[in-house]
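Quick one: structure tokens for this chain, please?
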Amino acid sequence: MPTYRFYQVDAFADRVFWGNPAAVVLLDVWPGDEVLRHIAAETHLPLTAFVVAVNAGAGKFHTRWFAPSGAEVELSGHALLATSHVIWTHQQCAAARLMFLTRTGELAVDRAGGVYTMDLPARSCTPVPRTDETFAALGRQPSELYSDGRILMGVFDGKRDVHEITPNWSALEKLDASGVAITAPGAKHDFICRFFAPRLGVPEDAASGSVHCVLAPYWAMRLGRTRLSSHQVSKRGGELACQLKGDRVLVSGRCADFMHGTITL
């Protein structure tokens, strides 16, 4: 009877019940994909990360991410952050840097104290027409609308719009995008944002590292600086720091442990 160690971690938060929860499942070898999908559905968290060591002593790992819908995700920032926390904190890995083999390529994570920093690919976006469909999905029309080919990003003039939007979920699912980000200038932060991904079984993502691969380049260009602070204003909330470095985005945050245990199949 196979057993797997797992941890539940709140990412982009310095205390439990904040940030974005992720399950991290440690494996010796890869089981079948159907097993991974069943576990992700059972944890029913925004993302479940599965990890197999390639060379644990050197800090090299292979990781895959699954949504509760069973879909495999190419990139999950918050689950990568949570995985790094588990490996350094609970597996006592001595490597100064962690390297993860993913569907997006090889991704590095560094740490300084309790802050973890992921080196992620920047994604440029282009303007797209605002349509009746986007208005129907969001209930408000953004002043600008962009796409990176996967997600739509609606830019609003005021943070109140971002806070108050209640999406029409059925209309949102019909949009030609895997998810929709909305953003506006912040007060205590450079910008605020929210992210909706109902197609993946995650109506609203609490704190998303991957969406900042699109948000950070946009705000860096708009504000004329490369270091940025972001507040994801979901119900749980999330604090993220970003730095644009050429075609990469460094996304930093903290993690808080919530639970650990054993999965028995």
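The longest helix spans residues 77-89.
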